[in-house]
Amino acid sequence: MMKACVLSSVPLILALSFSVGATVQAFFVTPILQQSRLILKNSEKVEVCGFKDCKRAGGGKRLENLINAIVEEKGLSDAISVEGCDCQGECGYGPNVVVDGKLINNVRGREAVLQALGLDDDAEDPDLDDFGEDLDTGGVVLDDLNWRVEKLRLEEQNTQRFLKSKPRFLPYDDCRRWVQAWGQRWETAKDWENWIAMGEKRNSYIPSRPDEYYGTLGQWKGWEHFLGSRKSKDGKNETNNDK
Predict the structure, then answer these.
(1) Does residue 95 have a cis peptide bond before it, meaning omega lies within 30 degrees of 0?
(2) pTM to 2 decimals?
(3) How many alpha carbons lie under 13 Å from residue 119 in its C-beta half-sphere?
(4) Whose C-alpha in 44, 94, 164, 183 is 20 to 30 A from the C-alpha of 192?
(5) Cα separations (Å) of 167 from 123, 194, 205, 239?
(6) Which whole number is the average pLDDT over 27-44?
């Protein structure tokens, strides 16, 4: 994985993504300006990230070997040290290179490496004014923003569908028997409500408010009947029956 850095005054990478018939992505590297090249020519240390995302983008050992080969070809192997480095915290923009502490992203291929190191004196800044005029852009392009909006819309639909779905609770008699076999000693509705408020109920098939749920179905027979043998309102013990 790798941290990507775009130089505030001198952008390195201009990535344009198009859908042309089948999905085709082309990356065009904007050369570093002459002033940046002069600065980077005096570089002493180049670091290459070898973590997962950068490896997947073609970085890691392969990119390190490429930089080494170019540095040696230019006769700068004694002047520039190429090393690996840890993830810098911004993933998904690799392969990435750290040149004397400056983080540069999307370094792809020989020419991009030369530009990142400031070794490509002959490179000219591309003219992008007419870029893309002759491309067939008839394919549907769903950019990142549109995808995020669509994703939120689908999530909202799923949420509404979930909220409108009916709960799957046990039939009243099955629920009542399950509660009475639970081993708890709820004396009153207040005991039950306090128990629910503490988050102790683990069975999703038992309603938290059985009086309301089974009441709407016309099946509710009172807390004493639901909880089993409990104290009646006057405090005397009352034995529940299944009538």
Answers:
(1) yes
(2) 0.29
(3) 23
(4) 164
(5) 67, 22, 8, 31
(6) 41
